[in-house]
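User:
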Amino acid sequence: TYQVLTLKRKGVFPHLDLLDARDWGLIIYDEVHLLPAPIFRMTADLQARRRLGLTATLVREDGREGDVFSLIGPKRFDAPWKDIETQGWIAPADCVEVRVTLPHSERIAYATVEPEERYRLASCTPSKDQVIERLVAKHKGEQTLVIGQYLDQLQELAAHLDAPLITGETTVKERQRLFEAFRSGEINLLVVSKVANFSIDLPEAAVAIQVSGSYGSRQEEAQRLGRLLRPKQDGRTAHFYTVVSRDTVDADFAANRQRFLAEQGYAYRIVDADDL
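Assistant: Predicted structure:
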């Protein structure tokens, strides 16, 4: 991984130096949108006759996605997600934004809190809990992920839904056990933090309920939807819900997060929480 290659010990990069000592014929950079990050771009200095970069989400919030072309080379192929869906390589998806209204007491708190705390307050409102419970009940029996950013919010949801919780603090052994139980159908509901954004293979996941995220990250939004897009054996549609607090920065960030998927041809239906 990029993290392993750029590991630094006592002022040196032992893994990077090991690979840099050879002249490679081909280097394939998976998740190449990560490459422009200041530390990861060091891996672009590895000597190779040919380079190939792969990504489903060539988008970065720092605007440096164009650096990929100078580090790797020109774009050779680009397939819109909807075209891939039409060809049957990924499952169709229904994207829904569910809007909740903050109660009066929370709106007062939101108006008076420091600006940097507003997103956390709006995205972690207890007003979302009942909506999430209804959505889980609606899709009872389907493989469902509840995904969020804030650990205290996820811990409360896991306890409320009586569901296992996976975070960065979960041991590798326990994480693997829970993912395998989810894959096999032994359990059909998981609450997960951003550890599920990358490199997790859950082919039967059919429903995701997003309760909070990394602010306005378009890349994270696409990665989370991507958890659902493995074609299902029965051809059914995947369901991706994002629950937001209306008239807050939570809604503003949600609008930005959806931009990349909108460019890929996806449309979000807007639903009021009271209409579920």
